[in-house]
Structures are given as C-alpha cells and as structure tokens.
C-alpha cells in the first residue's frame, strides 16, 4: 500500500502526462544545489525518451549521479525505443534475431499483466494503428476504414509470446510499442538506482510520470499536481501530497489530430482501432510503482469514465478522473482512499 499525505492548502496538477510543479520550476542548468538546514538536496535534469526528466534528491554530488542516470536511461532507450533502428524492440519489430535483455523482459511481463487486468484495453500491439493515425513513430499518409480494418488483423497482445528468452509472433506484421508504459518504467528504474545508492528522499519525473519517496528539502511531503484539462492551459486542477508512491496521468485533450475535418485523440482503442471518445478528459492513477500507474492510466482513457470507475473498484485502484458532466462542466471522480491525498484546486 502506498503511503500518501495531503496538505489541503497546497495546489498542483493533471495532463496527458503529469508535469507537476516541476514544470513551473526553471532548470537553467543541468543541476544545482539546494541548501536545506543540515541536508543537501540536488536537482538533475536532462532529456530522454523524447521528453525531459527532472530528479530531486538528498545525497551525493550530482556530477557522478547524473552520469550514472544518463547511462541507465541510454540503456533503457537501447532496449525499448522504437525510434532507435537497432534497439531490441526495433529488431523484434523487424523480425531480426536479437537477444532479449532484462529491461525488455520486465516491461513485456508487466505489459502482459496490465493487458490481462484491463481485458485488452491496454495493448502494445496497437502500434501500427497508432502510427496510421499519426501518433506513433511512423505516419501513414492516408487513413481510411479499410486501412484500419487491415491493420487490426495484427492487433492483439495475446498473439505475442516470450518464452525461453525468445519472442514469437503469430504474424510477422505484428508491431510492439511500449511507449505507453516505458516512461513509467524508466522512472521506476531510476528510483531503483537511487535506492541502491542509499538515497531515502527523492522525486523522479520523466515526461510527467512521477515516483516519490520520503520528504522534500522543505522536510514536507512532495507536492504534485494535475493540470487543468483544457487545451493550452497550464493551470492546476488538483493537488496531491505524497511521501511514497507513484502517480501517472493520461489525457486526450491536448494530443490530437484533425483528419478531413474530424478530431481524433491519441488514445487509440485497441478493440476498435479508433480514437477513444468520451466525456472523460484525464485519468490519474496512484500506485506502488510507476510502470503500473502509467499503463493503467492509458487503459482508463480507453475505457471512459464509467468503465474506469468500475475497473478501479474491481481492482482496488486509486484513481482521480476529470470529466465533463451533464452540464458540460468540469467535474471529477476520486477514489475514497484518496480523500486525504488529492484535492481540487478550484
């Protein structure tokens, strides 16, 4: 069970990916020292997985720490990035012989678990359809129902197996894309590295997905937020205070494309091949690890509000959903366990 605390006077956020209060901070350098009484906190930032990362921790000097973390993130990309031609996942997608590494194995097994828990709403093989709609690493020039129907023949994570260190696919055309879970996994691996270093107080964020432990330099729980789910807005809708755990958010209100006058959102329903359209604007998941939170947040956006609530109760998930009510006004649903964890900032 994650340990979470809330201070009701604080504020924070939600978006396609939780950007948190860190997005309001200015990282003019790669790292700098923050003095806090008798403790020393450092902040490190950089780029990875097509986005940015920010880390705040109490511990050793950042030069060595940053070098180690950048090396770790480079290894993760070499395993999981579809943008790198010779990565593990790219070789699998191209049906080339490849030795499956531990990173890929861990993500694959977690993806299988989330795929099962969500009855297929989370499916890494939906990649070709995502690409066709222009939200992946490769875009198809023209999209029509015939194309989507043909691509859906190769969507289904149950058609991919990992046995004895080897991947087998029912069809060679099947493409795997872990982008909906990789950032969360990256956060977990960085947090794991900090744990090995003996660091007890830290916050790790990659592309808005977050893990925290202990307290901040102010000797208080870490403050995270959920952004207002309005295109072009960076205002905060809700704020959470956490001392241990992960938080990830997925949303449809910013990442979309206009095709022949129609608006298509980036969360593609693996069951239909089309963008998920519902009154739900964003879904935030609190969990023990960020890999799980990241994957489940994506699945909840496929489900929509009512199915998300049903699944959260069935699985015991802690969720915070923002949606448009019958009056076309912003409203929210919050799991009972989060009453003292996250509050609206309105």
Overview of the molecule:
This protein has 346 residues and is of the alpha+beta class. It has 8 helices and 16 strands. The chain has helices at 62-80, 88-93, 102-117, 127-132, 145-152, 179-196, 290-303, 305-315, and strands at 3-4, 31-36, 39-48, 51-58, 160-163, 166-169, 202-206, 209-213, 222-227, 236-251, 256-259, 262-265, 280-287, 318-324, 330-334, 342-344. The strands form 3 sheets. Strands 1, 2, 3, 4, 7, 8, 9, 10, 13, 14, 15 and 16 form a 12-stranded antiparallel β-sheet that branches. It has a two-stranded antiparallel ribbon with strand order 5-6. A two-stranded antiparallel ribbon has the order 11-12. The radius of gyration is 20 Å and the shape is globular. Mean pLDDT is 84; it is low at 1-38.
- Rg from Cα: 20 Å
Estimated structural class? alpha+beta
The ordered H/E elements are EEEEHHHHHEEHEEEEEEEHHEEE
Mean of residue pLDDT values: 84
Number of E-state strands: 16
Beta strand %: 25-35%
Q: What's a quick, concise take on this entry?
A:
It contains eight helices and 16 strands. It has 346 residues and is α+β, with helices and mostly antiparallel strands.
Keyphrases for this structure?
two-stranded antiparallel sheet; alpha+beta; single chain; 346 residues; disordered N terminus; globular; 16 strands
């Amino acid at each position: 069970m994650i340990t979470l605390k809330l201070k009701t006077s604080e504020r924070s956020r939600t978006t396609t990916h939780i950007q948190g209060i860190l997005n309001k901070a200015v990282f003019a350098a790669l790292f700098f020292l923050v003095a806090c009484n008798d403790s020393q906190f450092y902040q490190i930032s950089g780029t990875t997985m097509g986005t940015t990362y920010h880390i705040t921790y109490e511990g050793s000097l950042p030069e060595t720490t940053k070098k180690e973390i950048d090396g770790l993130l480079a290894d993760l990309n070499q395993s999981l990035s579809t943008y790198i031609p010779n990565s593990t996942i790219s070789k699998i997608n191209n049906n080339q012989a490849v030795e499956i590494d531990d990173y890929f194995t861990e993500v694959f097994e977690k993806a299988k678990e989330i795929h099962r828990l969500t009855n297929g709403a989370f499916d890494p093989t939906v990649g070709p359809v995502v690409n066709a709609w222009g939200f992946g690493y490769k875009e198809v020039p023209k999209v029509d129902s015939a194309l989507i129907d043909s691509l859906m023949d190769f969507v289904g994570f149950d058609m991919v197996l990992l046995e004895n260190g080897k991947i087998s696919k029912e069809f060679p055309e099947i493409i795997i894309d872990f982008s909906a879970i990789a950032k969360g996994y990256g956060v977990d691996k960085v947090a794991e590295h900090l744990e090995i270093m003996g660091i007890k107080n830290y916050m790790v964020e990659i592309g808005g997905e977050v893990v925290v432990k202990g307290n901040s330099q102010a000797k208080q729980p870490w403050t995270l937020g959920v952004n207002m789910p309005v295109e072009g807005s960076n205002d905060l809708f809700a704020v959470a205070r956490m001392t241990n755990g992960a938080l990830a958010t997925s949303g449809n209100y910013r990442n979309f494309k206009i095709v022949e006058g129609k608006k298509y959102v980036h969360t593609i329903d693996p069951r239909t091949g089309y963008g998920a359209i519902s009154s739900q604007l964003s879904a935030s998941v609190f969990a023990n690890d960020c890999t799980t939170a990241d994957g489940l947040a994506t699945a909840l956006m496929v489900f929509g509000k009512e199915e998300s609530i049903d699944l959260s109760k069935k699985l015991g998930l802690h969720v915070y959903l923002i949606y448009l009510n019958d009056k076309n006004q912003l409203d929210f649903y919050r799991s009972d366990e989060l009453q003292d964890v996250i509050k609206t900032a309105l």
